[in-house]
Automatic annotation (TrEMBL):
Keyword flag Transmembrane: no
Cellular component, GO, one term: cytoplasm
InterPro entries named among the record's database cross-references: Immunoreceptor_sig_adapters (IPR051751), SH2 (IPR000980), SH2_dom_sf (IPR036860)
Name used for this protein in its record: BLNK protein
PANTHER family on file: B-CELL LINKER PROTEIN, SH2 DOMAIN CONTAINING PROTEIN
Domain SH2: 9-116
UniProt KW keywords: SH2 domain
Lineage summary: Eukaryota, Metazoa, Chordata, Craniata, Vertebrata
Biological process according to GO: cell surface receptor protein tyrosine kinase signaling pathway; intracellular signal transduction
Superkingdom, taxonomy of origin: Eukaryota
One Pfam family recorded for the sequence: SH2
Length: 119
């Protein structure tokens, strides 16, 4: 278990649209939640959804079978790996998370500051 089910930032029954709507309503940079990934792929079980600069970012959380760890986004060399999804959240509450906008080819960064609950 990724250690998500008891967490206030985990939106268990939330789909992508509900998550994005909730974050747009919050309208605060650094608002975030974690939802199940749409694809139900065991290698990418969750998605970190972050609001920043009037945009919502959906960042896949990958499960790395060989090490039983989690990582954000696409696989890259030297990436940070975590033993649980909760560790990813705790880490990025302290250190900035890089947000890559592939459409506009821009990079931003923010910390995870505000937990958004989906009603």
């Amino acid at each position: 278990d990724a250690g998500v089910h008891s967490k206030s930032w985990y939106a268990a029954t939330c789909d992508r649209k509900m998550a994005e709507d909730a974050l747009y309503r919050s309208n605060k940079d650094g608002s975030f939640l974690i939802r199940k990934s749409s694809g139900q792929d065991s290698r990418q079980p969750y998605t970190l959804v972050v609001f920043y600069n009037r945009r919502v970012y959906n960042i896949p959380i990958r499960f790395i079978e060989s090490t039983r760890q989690y990582a954000l986004g696409r696989e890259k060399s030297g990436e940070e790996r975590f033993d649980s999804v909760a560790e990813i959240v705790e880490n990025h509450q302290r250190t900035s998370l890089v947000l890559i906008d592939s459409q506009n080819n821009t990079k931003d960064s923010t910390k995870l500051k505000h937990i958004v609950r989906v009603s």
